[in-house]
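Workshop exercise sheet. Pairs work together: one partner reads the sequence aloud, the other fills in the structure field after running the prediction. Swap roles for the next sheet.
Pair: D.N. / O.F.
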Amino acid sequence: MSALTALRLSSLRNVIRFCALALLPMALAACVTAPPPQQAVRRIDPAYMAMYGERPDEMHPLPATDISEVDPRFLRREVAYYGREEPGTVVVDTQSRYLYLVREGGRAIRYGIGVGKEGLAWAGRATVGRKAQWPRWTPTAAMIKREPERNAKWAGGMAGGIENPLGARALYLYNNGVDTMYRIHGTTEPWSIGESVSSGCIRMFNQDVIDLYNRVPVGSPVVVLRGTPFRDVEQDGERVAFY
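Structure field:
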Protein backbone atom coordinates (compact mmCIF):
# COMPACT_ATOMS: atom_id res chain seq x y z
CA MET A 1 0.00 0.00 0.00
CA SER A 2 1.39 3.35 -1.02
CA ALA A 3 1.68 6.27 1.36
CA LEU A 4 -0.98 8.13 -0.68
CA THR A 5 -3.48 5.27 -0.39
CA ALA A 6 -2.90 4.99 3.37
CA LEU A 7 -3.51 8.71 3.77
CA ARG A 8 -6.77 8.47 1.84
CA LEU A 9 -7.98 5.55 3.99
CA SER A 10 -7.10 7.41 7.18
CA SER A 11 -9.05 10.47 6.02
CA LEU A 12 -12.05 8.32 5.11
CA ARG A 13 -12.06 6.74 8.56
CA ASN A 14 -12.03 10.20 10.18
CA VAL A 15 -14.98 11.33 8.04
CA ILE A 16 -17.00 8.21 8.99
CA ARG A 17 -16.18 8.66 12.69
CA PHE A 18 -17.23 12.33 12.59
CA CYS A 19 -20.53 11.55 10.86
CA ALA A 20 -21.31 8.79 13.33
CA LEU A 21 -20.69 11.07 16.31
CA ALA A 22 -22.76 13.86 14.76
CA LEU A 23 -25.74 11.60 14.01
CA LEU A 24 -25.76 9.71 17.33
CA PRO A 25 -27.68 12.40 19.33
CA MET A 26 -30.27 12.60 16.60
CA ALA A 27 -30.78 8.84 16.66
CA LEU A 28 -31.11 8.81 20.43
CA ALA A 29 -33.57 11.71 20.33
CA ALA A 30 -35.78 9.76 17.94
CA CYS A 31 -36.14 7.04 20.59
CA VAL A 32 -37.14 9.38 23.43
CA THR A 33 -40.56 11.05 23.70
CA ALA A 34 -40.23 14.71 24.52
CA PRO A 35 -42.22 15.75 27.62
CA PRO A 36 -45.36 17.75 26.85
CA PRO A 37 -45.16 21.48 27.49
CA GLN A 38 -46.30 22.30 31.00
CA GLN A 39 -49.56 24.18 31.32
CA ALA A 40 -50.04 27.02 33.74
CA VAL A 41 -51.41 25.79 37.06
CA ARG A 42 -54.25 27.76 38.58
CA ARG A 43 -53.97 28.40 42.30
CA ILE A 44 -57.21 29.30 44.00
CA ASP A 45 -57.16 31.56 47.03
CA PRO A 46 -57.64 29.35 50.14
CA ALA A 47 -60.29 31.82 51.33
CA TYR A 48 -62.39 30.88 48.31
CA MET A 49 -61.79 27.18 48.86
CA ALA A 50 -63.20 27.57 52.37
CA MET A 51 -66.02 29.83 51.14
CA TYR A 52 -67.26 27.19 48.70
CA GLY A 53 -66.37 24.18 50.85
CA GLU A 54 -68.72 21.46 52.06
CA ARG A 55 -71.48 22.20 54.57
CA PRO A 56 -72.07 18.97 56.51
CA ASP A 57 -74.24 20.80 59.05
CA GLU A 58 -77.02 21.42 56.52
CA MET A 59 -80.35 19.54 56.60
CA HIS A 60 -79.10 17.89 53.43
CA PRO A 61 -75.27 17.76 53.78
CA LEU A 62 -73.95 20.01 51.03
CA PRO A 63 -70.81 18.97 49.15
CA ALA A 64 -68.11 21.46 48.20
CA THR A 65 -68.64 23.34 44.95
CA ASP A 66 -65.94 22.75 42.36
CA ILE A 67 -64.83 26.26 41.43
CA SER A 68 -61.68 25.23 39.54
CA GLU A 69 -63.31 26.00 36.18
CA VAL A 70 -65.38 28.97 37.32
CA ASP A 71 -64.55 32.41 35.96
CA PRO A 72 -63.02 34.14 39.04
CA ARG A 73 -65.13 37.25 38.58
CA PHE A 74 -68.25 35.28 39.52
CA LEU A 75 -66.96 34.31 42.95
CA ARG A 76 -68.33 36.14 45.97
CA ARG A 77 -66.49 39.27 47.01
CA GLU A 78 -66.94 42.71 48.52
CA VAL A 79 -66.72 45.83 46.34
CA ALA A 80 -67.05 49.57 46.80
CA TYR A 81 -70.56 50.98 46.32
CA TYR A 82 -71.41 54.62 45.65
CA GLY A 83 -75.02 54.52 44.47
CA ARG A 84 -78.32 55.69 45.95
CA GLU A 85 -79.81 52.37 47.07
CA GLU A 86 -80.12 51.96 50.81
CA PRO A 87 -78.14 49.36 52.77
CA GLY A 88 -80.00 46.05 52.75
CA THR A 89 -81.15 46.45 49.15
CA VAL A 90 -80.58 43.58 46.72
CA VAL A 91 -79.72 44.66 43.17
CA VAL A 92 -79.88 42.06 40.39
CA ASP A 93 -77.89 42.95 37.27
CA THR A 94 -79.12 40.38 34.76
CA GLN A 95 -76.93 41.66 31.92
CA SER A 96 -73.63 41.47 33.80
CA ARG A 97 -74.68 38.30 35.69
CA TYR A 98 -74.16 39.82 39.15
CA LEU A 99 -76.28 40.20 42.26
CA TYR A 100 -75.32 42.88 44.78
CA LEU A 101 -76.27 43.27 48.41
CA VAL A 102 -75.76 46.90 49.42
CA ARG A 103 -74.12 47.28 52.83
CA GLU A 104 -73.25 50.09 55.21
CA GLY A 105 -70.17 52.25 54.71
CA GLY A 106 -70.20 52.41 50.94
CA ARG A 107 -69.69 48.68 50.39
CA ALA A 108 -71.61 45.90 48.67
CA ILE A 109 -71.29 42.12 48.43
CA ARG A 110 -71.19 40.90 44.83
CA TYR A 111 -72.31 37.40 43.89
CA GLY A 112 -72.15 35.68 40.51
CA ILE A 113 -75.49 34.52 39.10
CA GLY A 114 -76.94 32.51 36.24
CA VAL A 115 -79.97 33.87 34.39
CA GLY A 116 -82.76 31.83 32.79
CA LYS A 117 -85.51 32.92 30.43
CA GLU A 118 -87.90 33.44 33.34
CA GLY A 119 -85.19 35.54 35.00
CA LEU A 120 -85.08 37.84 31.98
CA ALA A 121 -88.85 38.19 31.76
CA TRP A 122 -89.32 40.61 34.62
CA ALA A 123 -87.66 43.79 35.87
CA GLY A 124 -88.53 46.42 38.44
CA ARG A 125 -88.79 46.79 42.19
CA ALA A 126 -90.04 44.18 44.60
CA THR A 127 -89.55 42.89 48.13
CA VAL A 128 -88.53 39.54 49.54
CA GLY A 129 -92.00 38.20 50.34
CA ARG A 130 -90.84 34.93 51.87
CA LYS A 131 -87.80 32.70 52.16
CA ALA A 132 -87.35 28.93 52.26
CA GLN A 133 -84.62 26.52 53.23
CA TRP A 134 -84.27 23.53 50.92
CA PRO A 135 -87.44 24.62 49.08
CA ARG A 136 -89.89 22.41 47.24
CA TRP A 137 -89.81 22.83 43.45
CA THR A 138 -92.72 22.55 41.03
CA PRO A 139 -91.95 23.08 37.32
CA THR A 140 -94.19 25.48 35.44
CA ALA A 141 -96.37 24.36 32.55
CA ALA A 142 -93.95 26.04 30.15
CA MET A 143 -91.00 24.14 31.61
CA ILE A 144 -92.87 20.82 31.33
CA LYS A 145 -93.77 21.58 27.72
CA ARG A 146 -90.20 22.57 26.89
CA GLU A 147 -88.55 19.55 28.52
CA PRO A 148 -91.27 16.94 29.17
CA GLU A 149 -88.91 14.00 29.71
CA ARG A 150 -87.05 15.89 32.40
CA ASN A 151 -89.85 17.83 34.11
CA ALA A 152 -93.21 16.11 33.60
CA LYS A 153 -92.65 13.57 36.37
CA TRP A 154 -92.30 16.43 38.85
CA ALA A 155 -95.58 18.14 37.94
CA GLY A 156 -96.75 17.46 41.50
CA GLY A 157 -93.58 18.94 42.98
CA MET A 158 -90.16 17.75 44.13
CA ALA A 159 -89.19 17.76 47.79
CA GLY A 160 -86.17 19.81 48.82
CA GLY A 161 -82.78 18.11 48.58
CA ILE A 162 -79.44 17.96 46.82
CA GLU A 163 -81.06 17.14 43.45
CA ASN A 164 -83.73 19.82 43.70
CA PRO A 165 -83.19 22.54 41.02
CA LEU A 166 -83.88 25.32 43.55
CA GLY A 167 -80.88 24.27 45.59
CA ALA A 168 -80.33 25.02 49.26
CA ARG A 169 -82.35 28.25 49.61
CA ALA A 170 -84.89 30.36 47.77
CA LEU A 171 -86.03 33.99 48.09
CA TYR A 172 -89.48 34.70 46.63
CA LEU A 173 -90.08 38.19 45.27
CA TYR A 174 -93.41 39.97 45.75
CA ASN A 175 -94.73 43.24 44.33
CA ASN A 176 -97.48 44.98 46.32
CA GLY A 177 -98.20 41.70 48.09
CA VAL A 178 -98.50 39.71 44.85
CA ASP A 179 -96.07 36.92 43.99
CA THR A 180 -94.10 37.95 40.89
CA MET A 181 -93.14 34.28 40.31
CA TYR A 182 -89.57 35.59 40.32
CA ARG A 183 -87.12 33.63 42.46
CA ILE A 184 -83.55 33.92 43.63
CA HIS A 185 -82.37 30.42 44.43
CA GLY A 186 -79.51 27.94 44.54
CA THR A 187 -78.62 25.48 41.80
CA THR A 188 -77.56 21.92 41.11
CA GLU A 189 -75.62 23.18 38.07
CA PRO A 190 -72.76 25.40 39.29
CA TRP A 191 -71.34 25.51 35.76
CA SER A 192 -74.31 27.69 34.79
CA ILE A 193 -73.24 30.64 36.97
CA GLY A 194 -72.33 33.48 34.65
CA GLU A 195 -74.42 31.97 31.85
CA SER A 196 -77.87 32.41 30.35
CA VAL A 197 -79.58 29.04 30.67
CA SER A 198 -82.79 27.58 29.31
CA SER A 199 -85.04 27.83 32.35
CA GLY A 200 -85.29 29.21 35.87
CA CYS A 201 -85.04 32.65 37.44
CA ILE A 202 -81.86 33.84 39.17
CA ARG A 203 -79.59 31.03 40.29
CA MET A 204 -76.59 31.23 42.61
CA PHE A 205 -73.99 28.85 43.98
CA ASN A 206 -75.58 27.04 46.92
CA GLN A 207 -72.97 28.45 49.31
CA ASP A 208 -73.72 31.95 48.01
CA VAL A 209 -77.49 31.70 48.29
CA ILE A 210 -77.09 30.43 51.87
CA ASP A 211 -74.95 33.49 52.61
CA LEU A 212 -77.51 35.82 51.01
CA TYR A 213 -80.40 34.09 52.82
CA ASN A 214 -78.70 34.67 56.17
CA ARG A 215 -78.14 38.37 55.45
CA VAL A 216 -81.48 39.34 53.88
CA PRO A 217 -84.67 39.37 56.00
CA VAL A 218 -88.21 39.11 54.67
CA GLY A 219 -89.36 42.55 53.51
CA SER A 220 -85.98 43.57 52.08
CA PRO A 221 -86.16 45.69 48.90
CA VAL A 222 -85.02 44.18 45.60
CA VAL A 223 -84.22 45.98 42.35
CA VAL A 224 -84.04 43.88 39.17
CA LEU A 225 -82.30 45.52 36.22
CA ARG A 226 -82.73 44.27 32.67
CA GLY A 227 -80.61 45.49 29.79
CA THR A 228 -78.76 48.17 31.78
CA PRO A 229 -75.57 47.22 33.65
CA PHE A 230 -75.28 48.34 37.26
CA ARG A 231 -72.75 51.20 37.23
CA ASP A 232 -72.75 52.12 40.92
CA VAL A 233 -70.02 49.71 42.03
CA GLU A 234 -66.30 49.36 41.42
CA GLN A 235 -64.97 46.82 38.93
CA ASP A 236 -61.54 46.06 40.28
CA GLY A 237 -59.09 43.13 40.33
CA GLU A 238 -59.87 39.64 41.53
CA ARG A 239 -58.62 37.82 44.63
CA VAL A 240 -57.87 34.60 42.75
CA ALA A 241 -54.19 34.26 41.86
CA PHE A 242 -52.48 32.33 39.06
CA TYR A 243 -48.95 31.01 38.62
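Discussion prompt: Residues 57 and 85 are 34 Å apart (CA to CA). What would you look at next?
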